[in-house]
What we know:
By secondary structure, the protein is an alpha/beta fold. The protein folds into 2 domains: about 5-30 and about 280-410, Beta Barrel (Lyase, Ornithine Decarboxylase, Chain A, domain 1), CATH 2.40.37; about 30-275, TIM Barrel. Helix content is about 30%, strand content about 25%. The protein contains 13 helices and 18 strands. The protein has helices at about 5, 15-25, 30-45, 65-70, 80-90, 105-115, 125-135, 170-180, 200-215, 245-260, 275, 310-315, 405-410, and strands at about 25-30, 50-55, 75-80, 95-100, 120, 140, 185-190, 220-225, 265-270, 280-290, 295-300, 320-325, 325, 335-340, 350-355, 365, 385-390, 395-400. Strands 1, 10, 11, 12, 13, 14, 15, 16, 17 and 18 form a 10-stranded mixed β-sheet that branches. Strands 2-3-4-5-6-7-8-9 form an 8-stranded parallel β-barrel, surrounded by 5 helices. Helix 7 (about 125-135) links the parallel strand 5 (about 120) and strand 6. Helix 7 runs parallel beside helix 8 and helix 9 packs parallel to helix 10 (about 245-260). The model has no long low-confidence stretch (mean pLDDT about 95). Bound molecules: ligand LLP. The site of ligand LLP has 23 residues, from helix 11 and helix 12.
Amino acid sequence: MDSYINSSSFFKNNNPEELAEKYGTPLYVYNEEILRSRMRAVAGVITKYPYTANYSIKANTNIHILKLALEEGLNCDAMSVGEITMLLKSGFPKERIFFVPNNVSDEELSFAIEKEIMTSLDSLSQLERFGRLNPGGRCAVRINPGVGAGHSEKVVTGGKKTKFGIAEEDIDKIFGIAEEYSLKIAGINQHIGSLFMSPEPYLEAVKNILRIAERFEGLEFIDFGGGYGIPYHKLDDEAPYPIDEFREALEPILTDFVERYGYAPLFKSEPGRYCVAEGSVILGRVNAIKQNAGKKYAGCDIGMNVLVRPSMYGSWHDVEVIRNGKVVSRDDLSEITVVGNICESGDILAKERMLPEIKEEDLVCILDTGAYGYSMCSTYNSRPRPAEVMVKKDGSVELIRRRETIEDLMTLF
Ligand code: LLP
């Protein structure tokens, strides 16, 4: 593919140069139609049995995006009191929120209990804590699926090398604690990790949790977790996650279980990245071109504070170059490293990439930044966080989060 921006008509009738001038750079730009289409795809993963897709909002908590999820009929999972608050603010009723925290305090658990939000406890110690705070209550437990998958060791959440979940050998202890505090275990959940392009590890984990589910009586729901990948190498024609093939493979596994269990509890999945990643790009301005020890660098204003994934995980994001409002064709490529404006040598967006020639004042457009982009932004080097705009279905552009200012940063002192 020569250009994702052009082939998806990402900016619709808007000129990216004009957006950059009007709203400034760095700028997160979202496309409403793409966001909605991915949300719809996850909502349809299971059709034969009761099912909800929980959008995992840690990927992106912009309230305007949460409202799209609400409209598309998704439920959501929250990781913190902050995320629960964002969801309530954007109109989600408590029944559509699932709290999946890790290592939280009495205060945080009490917040969810008071708001009557279904909570999953991910260790025996947290289950006891919940029991003490809410004897006779209903809750879920997070099982460690025993297998993990993901794009980096840092995002694998299943198996022996992670802090998450309750191991299968401790399940009897769950029943002991539940009895002691008269807790009803209404559901079980798991999450194997983030970003896999083949359905196999997830399907294996589904089979595994369904086998474990048979040890629990009267489950109301079983949540298989998220992790579906997206093609970050789309300019090299990487294939998307095969969601139809996945759906077809999943259904007979569920049917098998339903026959054994006697009824179908509510099945859930918990995708974050898949819903939002491809619906956003970041526009950044190139401020410097330089040559260091024979290596060419383009220095732009998208630092690791704006997009941390490349420096944190070595993640790949495709880059397009825009000059005078038009995408520069990829006919003639040469090697260049695209870096940000942060005082760290690891502040690298794209290392030794084959890209069209980049000149000062060009825009670089970083693709697939909707997931774990803004939500992982920081103010490192005292750089205010960027603005976010949404290209709506009708082509109009809405500012969905204003740029932070230095005055905003000063208000904390
Ligand atoms: N459910 C649970 C319990 C999770 O921990 C996560 C992600 C998800 C669902 C959603 O996973 P997804 O469908 O988005 O893969 N910052 C990393 C990803 C960290 C994922 C953390 N947990 C990145 O930028 O790749």
